[in-house]
UniProtKB/TrEMBL annotation:
SUPFAM superfamilies given in the database record: Quinoprotein alcohol dehydrogenase-like
Gene3D superfamilies cross-referenced by the UniProt entry: YVTN repeat-like/Quinoprotein amine dehydrogenase
InterPro entries attached to this UniProt entry: PQQ_rpt_dom (IPR002372), Quinoprotein_ADH-like_sf (IPR011047), WD40/YVTN_repeat-like_dom_sf (IPR015943)
Limits of the Pyrrolo-quinoline quinone repeat domain: 83-334
PANTHER family xref list: CELL SURFACE PROTEIN, OUTER MEMBRANE PROTEIN ASSEMBLY FACTOR BAMB
Name the record gives this protein: Outer membrane biogenesis protein BamB
Length: 410
């Protein structure tokens, strides 16, 4: 028993060590919570300067940034391309190319959706068709490759594969949504071999996160119709609860963790749930359909306050909402704000609107206090932004097949 506890503590320490060193190495930053660690962003008094800009192909994948490298995952014609760019000037260091076989669904964009994952000397990318690649960070050479969705006969969903894999210890946990019993799978991150498979659940567009309960690290994953807590060592399900709705719906926001508390949200009449998992079984603390109902934007927590976009982009009813983390009580609401991705930077929140506006506001629960705003070059900005070393990386959609990555210094 003590040996198991030591092993789990070691896994957690290794995870924290990896995430604290890099700047924005994966989806939603170092800890998958939308926080730019150790950074401060002062209100700008003149339009933010464009540091550099690079044209690229299709896709909604945000970039990962670490060690002066910017990893850009996109599609050009019949190829999915992983470009390693210099954070200094955007020049390309190397390119890794893979066949692109995704033919599209509800959305005309055919590019990848998942943010690259930088882990030490390796980078992992998950393509729109569910093909997982591991490449060397130094040179872009392929280390291993797995066509997971075809191997496990997974449905491609409305928008292709869109759940960014999670590195935890020496494993890579992936929401595949396959059969039989392969909703979640774990791979040896070094060689790509399958360690375990678990769950009869379709994949969602939310990404799994680590959660520690009773000094043991688990994986929390929002699937198509359920949220599950699994043991990463063997895939055993600790607990699960209903979350989702049948029909033309998706679960896309990544869950937030605070100790034993887990927050999940979705649109389409699903709403949100705040649960306490301290006892191993989920206990609802609060949750309603009319408090926070996020279509795909992951909220950010700053102290006792939760900042979220509630509503749907396709309905044009996105609102910026502040609610108290402990009980969901509304602090304030900013109507007609629109859909925006949120990054917490110290005691401020940076919002990148899909429409191409930047807003900086105070992480204050008493009222909406806008500190600065700016307009980005014309286009749509659906990809997750990244914030590293004072630089904001935004991906602009020019046409369905052509994007542009813009590095901005607010």
């Amino acid at each position: 028993m003590m040996r198991d506890g030591i092993a789990c503590t070691w896994i957690l320490l290794m995870f924290l060590a990896q995430t604290c060193v890099a700047e924005w190495p994966q989806i939603l930053g170092s800890n998958r919570d939308g926080h730019a660690i150790g950074k401060k962003l002062d209100p700008w008094t003149s339009p933010p300067a464009v540091k550099w800009r690079v044209r690229c192909g299709a896709g909604y994948a945000g970039v990962a940034v670490a060690g002066g490298n910017v990893l850009l995952w996109h599609r050009e014609d019949d190829k999915e391309c992983l470009d390693c760019l210099s954070s200094d000037d955007g020049s390309r260091k190397w390119r890794a190319v893979f066949p692109a076989v995704y033919r599209g669904g509800v959305d005309p964009d055919l590019g990848p959706r998942c943010v690259p994952v930088i882990d030490g000397e390796q980078v992992y990318v998950y393509g729109a068709a569910g093909d997982l690649q591991a490449v060397g960070l130094a040179n872009g050479k392929t280390i291993w490759s797995r066509p997971l969705r075809s191997q496990y006969e997974a449905d491609e969903g409305y928008f292709g594969a869109g759940s960014t894999p999670l590195v935890i210890g020496d494993q890579l946990v992936v929401a595949v949504g396959g059969e039989p019993n392969a909703g979640l799978i774990a791979l040896n991150k070094g060689n790509g071999e399958t360690r375990w498979t678990a769950l009869e659940q379709e994949a969602a567009y939310s990404s799994p996160v680590p959660i520690t309960l009773k000094n043991k690290t688990y994986v929390a994953a929002v699937m198509r119709l359920k949220t599950v807590i699994v043991d990463p060592t063997d895939g055993t399900v600790l607990t699960e609860f209903e979350f989702g709705r049948r029909g033309p719906t998706v679960n896309a926001a990544t869950p937030l963790v605070d100790g034993s508390n887990l927050f999940v949200t979705a649109a389409y009449g699903v709403g949100c749930r705040m649960l306490d998992l301290a006892g191993g079984k989920p206990t609802d603390r609060w949750g309603q359909t009319d408090v926070i109902s996020s279509q795909y934007v992951t909220p950010v927590r700053c102290g006792q306050w939760l900042f979220a976009i509630t509503g749907r982009e396709d309905y044009g009813n996105g609102e910026l909402l502040c609610a108290r983390w402990a009980d969901g009580k509304e602090g304030w609401r900013q109507p007609e704000f629109g859909t925006a991705h949120l990054i917490a930077v110290g005691d401020r929140v940076l919002a990148q609107k899909i429409s191409g506006e930047l807003k900086l506001f105070a992480a204050d629960g008493s009222s909406y206090q806008e500190l600065a705003s700016a307009t980005l070059p014309t286009g749509k900005y659906r990809a997750l932004p990244a914030f590293s070393e004072g630089v904001l990386y935004c991906r602009r959609i020019i046409t369905p097949s052509q994007n542009e990555l813009i590095a901005i210094r607010p």
